[in-house]
Amino acid sequence: MPGLPMPTPLPPIRLPGAVALRDGRLSARTVALAGGRIASGPFPEVDLGGYLILPGIVDLHHTGALRQIGPESAVDCGMAQVDQEAAAHGVTTRCISVPWSWERPAAAPAAARDTIRRWDANRSRALTDLHLQLCADPNMVDSADDLISLVRDHGVSQVLFRDLASAVRDLRTQDPEGFIRWCRAQGGAPEALSAGLDTMLAAAGRMPRNLCRLAEQFD
Predict the structure, then answer these.
(1) 177 contacts: CB under 8 Å, gap ≥ 6
(2) Are 44 and 16 in contact (CB under 8 A)?
(3) Each residue of 158-196: pLDDT tens digit?
(4) Rounded (5°) CA angle 102-133-109
(5) Which of 13, 18, 110, 120 could bridge 48 with an S-S bond, Cβ 3.0-4.6 Å?
């Protein structure tokens, strides 16, 4: 399965003059880099006096990107905004959580494909290392082939399995008012979402085999 290309590290370099966070403390010290790792050596220098050198933040599960991208955003603008916001807050690696689910149009496979198209269009210009993380309900048995193809064709880094149908089934049974509130939060009518839930639950008997197949393919 193809993965994302590894970023090319900087050439060997020394960064004197900055205040660096090393070993849990801020101190004025030179940082040298070689091969993408902290090193030592008489490398060419870039004076960073007046700057801070801090480790980048790794955001392993970013769920706010879809609100930033928006269904009406331009392809370049939406994903570029996610990228720029990450860079401005010190995030150097971000895993964008994209639903592959059934509860609302923005979580459907068509929306996931659109998000991936936007991500592909912005990859060559990204300031940060953006990865995709599909959050898939394994009860969606009929879309398994599409999910596998999407992961293979676009180098999706992670797939998280989330049995949303079972959780919502329990909510509907144990807390009907809570189920109605959940439906409203999804922007749908309780009757329609209840029918969609029943469709997912009808495939529940096929879910374990589907889950094993997906895991095997992704391995």
Answers:
(1) none
(2) no
(3) 999 999 999 999 999 999 999 999 999 999 999 999 999
(4) 30
(5) 18
Instruction: With cut-offs at 50, 70 and 90, classify the pLDDT of residue 3.
Output: very low
Q: Residue written as tokens 């008489």?
A: 42
**Among candidate residues 215, 104, 82, the one with its CA nearest the CA of residue 159:** 215
- Locus of tokens 């996931």: 112
Contact in structure between 32 and 13 (CB atoms under 8 Å):
yes
- From the list 197, 95, 100, the residue with the least C-alpha distance to 145 is 100
The whole-angstrom separation of Cα 84 and Cα 88 is 6
Q: Could you tell me which of 171, 175, 177, 178 has the C-alpha nearest to residue 197?
A: 171
User: Dihedral of CA 83/88/89/91: which sign?
Assistant: positive
166: Cα separation from own chain's centroid: 23
Q: In what order do the strands lie in the sheet with 25-28?
A: 25-28, 19-22, 52-53
